[in-house]
Amino acid sequence: MATAALRVGICGFFLECNRWAPVTxxxxxxxxxxxxxxxxxxxxxxxxxxxxPDTAGFVAQMNQLGPWQPVALRMAAAQPGGPAEHxxxxxxxxxxxxxxxxxxxxxxxFISSHGAALTxxxxxxxxxxxxxxxxxxxxxxxVVAVLDLHTNVSQRMTxxxxxxxxxxxxxxxxxxxxxEEVARHLHALIANGPGVVERVRLPLVxxxxxxxxxxGTPYAELIALGQTHVGGAxxxxxxxxxxxxxxxxxxxxxxxxxxxxxDRAAARSLALDLAQTVWQQRDRFVSRLTPVDEAVRxxxxxxxxxxxxxxxxDVADNPGAGGGGNTVLLLQSLLAAGAQGVLLGVxxxxxxxxxxxxxxxxxxxxxxxxxxxxDDLFAQPCQYPARVLALSDGRFVGRRGMVKGxxxxxxxxxxxxxxxxxxxxxxxxxxxxxxxxxxxxxxxxASVRTLVVKSRGHFRAAFDEFAxxxxxxxxxxxxxxxxxxxxxxxxxxxxxVFPIDDDANWSP
Length: 508
Fold this sequence. Notes:
This protein has about 500 residues and is an alpha/beta fold. The chain has 2 domains: about 280 residues, Response regulator (Rossmann fold, 3-Layer(aba) Sandwich); about 190 residues, no CATH class. It has an 8-stranded mixed beta sheet. It is globular.
């Protein structure tokens, strides 16, 4: 007798929110990703869909595991930024609810989520979405989700889910694999009974620079330890470092365990044991940032004859965490010191990029940075004589790291020479993730001695051939995404919490 095809709803809401960044608008979602119904259904069938890779991996694995029917609901995603407009979020969830009811009955629901979203009226929109999906499909239908390892996990989120799968890599190069994994878990839950999710949250908010998953890092070792416990009743162990800059009550390092067969006791016991191990190692999650003057001296050495290539990560101005990608202190300091062989990428300034495109290659002019940012405390206006070296429409296909093989665009872009320092200026805010963003402006990385990146860490997956790990300095500059957490004006963060409060304590 033929097995009936599983009908699985597909939906998503993906946004990482910085409490102090400008509001993320409906238009920003529209410019990035917002698809529903037949349009999303057609996208899911493409070999390289515009959805995040976790969804593509889920669909591909489900195709291999047996007969099924994806039922496209709605997916929306935007670049990291401030809280989403609540009216947009409410409309999104209401639309997903209506589509769920119209599609009933479903055998399961898949959600692609970041997990660190905010809205202008809610600090747990992810939990709100999950709970409202659960309320419609009922307690027996598996609801599975893939989340960023920077998710801030609430009880409402885990109560609504049958399987919780967070990324295990940072830089995030395993989204597709995690989508494939949750597809396998879905089949296991259908065969072996209900999935249960337990979470333990710690008063620990590691700065983003302490959450690198690389050999020898504490996070990598703890994630690997968690994987040794997967098997039997335990389907998944996710160690979620969280996103402190959301400044909300659910901030904190969360250990999340999924078990099959309804074995909640096994999930809870393991979550507590692993949480205790994490807490014992909390001192390892403290970052050392490099002062600006020390970073400039390192760039001067790199530009001297025989100097080794260097990367300066302007981590406090990371568009990947809500930063504007347009602070100028490091740029000004390098120019004042006479640094040579420097390339800064990518700097977000649509007005400057458009002016350079209008002037044309070879034009000499006064480059006015941040002319339209008078209300931004960090994006100070400044100007320098410049020459236009190259222009581009900003479209690129990633060739390494996180965005390999996917299509993206930066808007009108320009490469400017300021004398010893070149700046890649773009129109659409984003972090430097891939050499292809520089390729389209004709940059030969062999000519660069110091690469200044507006990024926290995802550049590491794509620029590892330019400079080794020991030649990467995380600079302590100004910006909305500073990892220097003790300097921020917290309003909703649960206190005490380590490392903001040295005296924070916890016991299982």
